[in-house]
Amino acid sequence: MPPNTSPAVVLERAAAACTARGLAFTPIRQRVLQLLLEHGKGLKAYDLLALIKAEQPGATPPTVYRALDFLTEHHLAHKIERNATFVACTQENHVEPSLFLVCPKCSAITELQDRSVMQALCRALAAAGHQLDNPEVEIGATCPNCKGS
Ligand SMILES: [Zn+2]
Ligand SMILES: [Zn+2]
Description:
The protein is globular. It has a three-stranded mixed beta sheet, covered by helices on one side. It has a two-stranded antiparallel ribbon with strand order 1-2. α2 (27-38) crosses α4. By secondary structure, the chain is α+β, with helices and mostly antiparallel strands. The protein has two domains: 7-88, Winged helix-like DNA-binding domain superfamily/Winged helix DNA-binding domain (Arc Repressor Mutant, subunit A, Orthogonal Bundle); 98-148, Ferric-uptake regulator, C-terminal dimerisarion domain (Dna Ligase, domain 1), CATH 3.30.1490.190. The longest helix is centred in the N-terminal third of the chain and has 14 residues, at 7-20. A hairpin with a 6-residue loop joins β3 and β4. Helices cover 46% and strands 15% of the residues. Bound molecules: zinc ion (2 copies). One zinc ion (ZN) is lined by residues 103, 105-106, 108, 143, 145-146.
């Protein structure tokens, strides 16, 4: 069965994770995560700021950026360096590195939920004396939609 990644479920899980970890899931943090969920291809920080400002004219950039920092720090969202975008994490209790497939054609971002791949990669890196410096491992991979066209 594919994991349940509907926005309502992901938000609920995030709220539960914050409660369990003693973290405050403030309205701005919730709203930022919700907007990321609504934009499957991710949002750049300034696009997110524009969306928040349209709803809450009093919102300041630091408020929005702090909310993003909170979400990424606690693995509720991920930063994809390749596109300089943020995406909501769709995995439950995500604490390990994971693989992100970034489509070069449409910029769709898919979080690949395959632990064995990441474990093998981390083992191979360790064997070569290296260590991941970023829990978001990005690779370019044409998505099923673009592959067909
Ligand atoms: Zn994740
Ligand atoms: Zn694509």
